[in-house]
């Protein structure tokens, strides 16, 4: 699921991303949600939403991630739209009762309004990380810093009232009084902040902090790269999908823990609908198109199946992006797209196929030019194929196109040109190819055509 806004020049200005696995995890564990904020280049900010409560069956920190978002800015309106996208993606949002946030989260009222039934509370993870970083910046003596950090570690793993008071006293005694306000040591004695964390055992607390640190550091590092927002969300999605996790993680679709009981049938039905839609598109390509045309389009469809598609609506066209350069599909007949593949071959490209897949539709004969349809007039088809070959040969080189793809286009066109012609024309064209091959490689070498 992807929601986005376009800015100046038609570039992506904001995006909210969530996979089916993320949605499944949140549906199982919606009661406690942690919101992590990471600053990036060019003033952009990444918001990571993670399940924060007990989550039996989850292995690895990335399994806790349920939503990624980059708002247009951090105004109240932009953040409200971001939280609104999260709610739209997750019907279980109304079950959330606790929201954990870091110090200084912008526009807290926007978050509280989006989740009126939840309590917004300071995150112990963010509190301890902030305290650790500030202690390290104080440039204390080595033994003093090690003593404070060791006490902080004990507090993290066993958040008893005694350990928190000990940590509070240690900071008060070892840090200069004028530096104490920036450490916010009063938070150590706030029982409400520590209430949820106190219920964790030593091992649970250790795993929880380790998982959150690995996840937040990894995603922040990916986000800090100087990339366009389109490339950035692609890199974040790749990092999420490829981060090593235990085979028993709830993100593993083969694991029984991957789907909650309450939504198991719903997700199964959705997968079956997707499978039938994809099979219908493949069958319609085989039924309507000539074999070379079907082969080319199936290659395009394979890209659609393995990617995320962003589909935005306009008055007269759909903006389709298969996480690459955006192209526009004509809504009238779904037969025209601005991409190179469709412009040259006049065949359904990955962008048109993405629309068909999204709308649960199949290919129709009127979406194809006549020479690509089965049973069309052979002579006319041959002439049209020749025109297609000329279009490729006359088109300017585009470095973004893979060389092997261009070669495959030429091979397909030549094959089609030889297929849709009379026997006399075939003999003439074959002799021409024979001469061309000999001129390239030499008549002394046997060239198999």
Automatic annotation (TrEMBL):
Which domain of life, per UniProt?
A: Eukaryota
Pfam families per record: SWIM, ZSWIM1-3_C, ZSWIM1-3_helical, ZSWIM1-3_RNaseH-like
Which portions of the chain have biased composition (kind: Polar residues)?
244-253
Q: Which UniProt keywords apply?
A: Metal-binding, Zinc, Zinc-finger
Q: From the UniProt record, which GO molecular function terms apply?
A: zinc ion binding
Q: What is this protein called?
A: ZSWM1 protein
Annotated segments matching region Disordered? 244-274
Specify the SWIM-type domain's residue ranges.
327-360
- Gene symbol here is Zswim1
Keyword Zinc-finger included in the entry's annotation: yes
* Presence of the UniProt keyword Electron transport in the record: no
